[in-house]
Amino acid sequence: MHLIAPSLLAADFRRLDQAISLVNKSEADWFHLDVMDGMFVPNISFGQFIIQQVAKDAKKYLDVHLMIEQPERYIESFAEAGADGITVHAEATKHLHRVIQQIKAAGCKAGVALNPHTPVSVLENVIEDIDLVLIMTVNPGFGGQKFIYQSLQKIRQAYDMIVVRNSPAIIEVDGGIGLQNARKVLEAGARVLVAGSAVFKAEDPAGVIRDLKGLESNPLISV
Ligand SMILES: O=C(CO)[C@H](O)[C@H](O)COP(=O)(O)O
Ligand SMILES: [Fe+2]
């Protein structure tokens, strides 16, 4: 069954408690939390403090997407803030293998994200060690952008690598995902759908989550 991870980035932060409660009560599986440092990406969002506050009320898995340079500086503090899974960008560190071990040592699931221009082949030497591959389907930094269609090919490549190498990793897709393209990304091999604007800018966010969850899962992707 595929999983839905609403991104709080698109929520109204004046009413963060309402957004958390909406996700708690909905059919969503995870909270997706986008951390941006103004260096790796042009935008600055929030950090450990906000995640700590979210963790107090969130009743679901906290999926932390770090869009920060040298994420190795902050892994333990995000784990302490309440992250269940931490995903770092392959482009943001010189020592990807070491950071993956660091995330696991901190007690979290380890994910690696790839920008749209980064080939799947950079995962060649870590694919067996990771729990999640995050294929960015927009250039990271902002919510509400247009889905990049060439990403479908990358999802298939990542899926093939996972199968051939017998990796435990699942594929998450992030950026411009909504009911208009979710079926295609699931068919390509995605297991987790991140959706920010499609959920929180909708009139009925819980209804959108229900519809995304109700889509047919790819039978090849079990568990
Ligand atoms: O990582 C991200 C941006 O860098 C966000 O998770 C993503 O953009 C979600 O927002 P939307 O669904 O509106 O595209
Ligand atoms: Fe994200």
From TrEMBL:
Residue positions binding a divalent metal cation: 32, 34, 65, 174
Enzyme active site: 34, 174
Cofactor note: Binds 1 divalent metal cation per subunit.
UniProt KW keywords: Carbohydrate metabolism, Cobalt, Isomerase, Manganese, Metal-binding, Zinc
GO molecular function, one term: metal ion binding
Keyword match Protease: no
Annotated positions binding substrate: 7, 65, 141-144, 174-176, 196-197
EC numbers: 5.1.3.1
Reaction equation(s) it catalyzes: D-ribulose 5-phosphate = D-xylulose 5-phosphate
NCBIfam families, per the entry: PRK05581.1-4 (NF004076), rpe (TIGR01163)
PANTHER family: RIBULOSE-5-PHOSPHATE-3-EPIMERASE
Role, per record: Catalyzes the reversible epimerization of D-ribulose 5-phosphate to D-xylulose 5-phosphate.
Protein's name according to its UniProt entry: Ribulose-phosphate 3-epimerase
